[in-house]
Amino acid sequence: MEHILKRNFGYSQFRPCQKEIIEQVLGGRDCLVVMATGSGKSLCYQVPPLVTGKTAVVISPLLSLMQDQVMSLKQRGIKAEHLGSSQTDQSVYSKAESGVYDVLYMTPEKACMVPPRFWGNLLNVGMCLLAVDEAHCISEWGHDFRKEYKQLDVLRGVLFNVPFIGLTATATEKVQNDIVQSLKMTDPYINIGSFDRQNLFYGVKPCNRTQSFQEELVAKILKYKASGGSTIVYCTTVKDTEQICQLLRDAGIVSGIYHGQMGSKAREESHRSFIRDEIQVMVATIAFGMGIDKPNIRCVIHYGCPKSLESYYQESGRCGRDGLASVCWLYYSRSDFSKADFYLSDVQSENQRKAIMESLIAAEKYCLIASCRRKFLLQYFGEHKSGDCGNCDNCSRTKVERDLSKESYLLLACIKSCGGRWGLNMPIDILRGSRSRKIIDNSFDKLPVHGHGKDNTTTWWKGLAGLLTAHGYLKEVIDDVYRKISVGPRGMQYLRDSNLLYQPPLVLELTSEMIV
Length: 516
Ligand code: ADP
Ligand code: ZN
Hints:
Layout: H1 2-9, H2 18-26, E1 31-34, H3 43-52, E2 55-59, H4 63-75, E3 80-83, H5 86-97, E4 103-106, H6 108-113, H7 116-125, E5 127-132, H8 147-150, H9 154-158, E6 164-168, H10 173-182, E7 189-192, E8 200-206, H11 211-226, E9 230-235, H12 238-250, E10 255-258, H13 264-275, E11 281-284, E12 297-303, H14 309-316, E13 326-332, H15 340-344, H16 350-368, H17 373-380, H18 393-396, E14 401-403, H19 405-418, H20 425-431, H21 437-441, H22 458-470, E15 474-479, E16 482-487, H23 489-496, E17 507-509
Parallel strand pairs: 1-6, 1-7, 2-4, 2-5, 3-4, 5-6, 8-13, 9-11, 9-12, 10-11, 12-13
Antiparallel strand pairs: 14-17, 15-16
Bound molecules: adenosine-5'-diphosphate and zinc ion.
Adenosine-5'-diphosphate binds at residues 11, 14-15, 18, 35, 37-43.
């Protein structure tokens, strides 16, 4: 194995995990590999065919990605091809059936379409594994569900003696289980690398589209530019990319732009000048993603909250590949959190709708917590970290704690009175003394707490609601696409112990939004 690694890939040793995974596959065992982008997953399915002389079939979602991989394998003297571009398919088929290829790539659609006879012939000449790349696409609970992936389960019936390897960079526990079940893996070897990128600093800031934000952005970018590193600014819309790019250019910062509405030529050019350091700043939508393997990105800024923590982790994770200290800043505005309609517009299945809502809520929570960001992120991916990281904004700022018993009582009492039928806006409007139509119609203006919370802004109250939810006083449920808030068991107990004049102390650490 070491000889092959040296001869074909030019590396002197395997990375931790690679060797173990390859040995398991060679032993015929199914594997689930969850490892960060750039950690070297592809070797896990590229080495076994060279050891065994049998073909590895790799399922991959994108044609362009497959082409890149095939090209780089060929340069390494490995016989690789892909099925997908139809004119050449016929000869690829017949060569594959006579065992010519070490590695054969195909899209999931192709994999489900090829006749059983093809698999039969391939098995006869020798097939060492079936790899499913970007395996999270198989799960409705994942952040990038694809229908074509779901059908891959039929392959198990044809390829029962071939080890399956599912590979992905991001999968929560739920998604991991889903992959194992969907691919009908039996007693798989599961290898989950750490999600902890210790050289990355995580920070979050609320922002409105104001002057101060623009100045801050420019200052940040200048700082990393001066140190010779690159920056990516991710925007949620094409319009934002144009605006931010203009803003930076006006400030004298040479910036590239990249989004899905540009022609492929312009995009390629933009990508190339970034990789070659001709431009140090790229303002882009998430279309700027796959295949960015640039070591010296020092800073990734998100302008607008991403739709899930999986995407955030992946996008922010593009900085600091060289292991040097780098920063990930996320600027959100409250309206980012009500974009569910937008993401749900063409989604059919109930589970998927729920998954999208849950992802969005998790991303919102990440923005609103007062505690360690890294700990929260890692927990989301099922990794427990003891102690705070000391390398995120919440760990670095001076903690502000306050007794919020009065305010908590008001919010809990108000939510209880609303009867769990509303989202957060209604109780907050009541506390702030609104006399909107809905409030009058429901007689909420008659509640004893009506108007008692005028001293704090809506944002402040939302901050408190976030804290009370995090501590189990409140609980949020998703009812189809609606988020409803109700009082949890701990909140009920607190209400029983309190009245309008007296509440037991409740000391909480304020989020940055609550500090005015
Ligand atoms: P992933 O699929 O996990 O995103 P890749 O397989 O593309 O990662 O590998 C990322 C980079 O690491 C590639 O440039 C690859 O050549 C390099 N790499 C992989 N394994 C090794 C190794 N054992 N030694 C040195 N470099 C490696
Ligand atoms: Zn921290």
